[in-house]
Amino acid sequence: MYYYIKGTLVQKGDNYLVVDTGGVGYMIYTSLTSISSSGEIGKEIIMYTYLNVREDVMDIFGFTSIEEKNMFLHLISVSGVGPKAALAVLSVVTSPQFALAVVTNDVKTITKASGVGPKMAQRIILELKDKLKKEEIEIDSDEEFEPISSDNRSEAISALVVLGYNSSDAQKAVKGINPELGVEEIIKKALSSLL
Fold it and tell me: Is the pLDDT assigned to residue 141 strictly greater than 80?
């Protein structure tokens, strides 16, 4: 319903921000990452939001970046992972760190989140890794790419797509990187060229 809310940051809590827009204060639940990058109280802010509606509650969840919102949406698509658990995960790792954890089967990193045990972390990895592999890498027909035969490089491209980069940019970023490197190293090198 709401794509984003733009207004003045008026309050910061442990797990929420209050943004005043036209005299209405929106309480937006968010991650520690977004709280720390939200800026000073009194400054203008844009929060990319998700409205969670249940029988008795309407909660707004929001993030200071589209990438973090995309990760949140991926997380809540996993069976058994609700908005609060997704926030807990995104409060202990950044979006790129989370993508790396999924791609590299790093259960330990995901279980750092409060209330997320090994079984839930494994479910998150299993379901999101499958989604990544199902996403097709589209190559622009007017551009030439070297074939990406390395599993590590194709996994890195999938992780970059999850982070919000389009597949063409992800292909270009990964193109010249040594395929012998690990997935995490390939992603780090690709991100440095994309930023």
Answer: no
Mean pLDDT of 5-13: 96
Kindly state the tokens that stand for 44: 């203008």
User: pTM for the complete prediction?
Assistant: 0.69
Separation of alpha carbons 62 and 90, rounded Å: 12
Q: What DSSP line would sit under the chain, residue for residue?
A: --SEEEEEEEEE-SSEEEEEETTEEEEEE--HHHHHTS--TTSEEEEEEEEEE-SS-EEEEEESSHHHHHHHHHHHTSTT--HHHHHHHHHHS-HHHHHHHHHTT-HHHHTTSTT--HHHHHHHHHHHHHHHHHS-----TTS-------HHHHHHHHHHHHTT--HHHHHHHHHTS-TTS-HHHHHHHHHHHH-
Over range 25-45, report the average pLDDT.
94
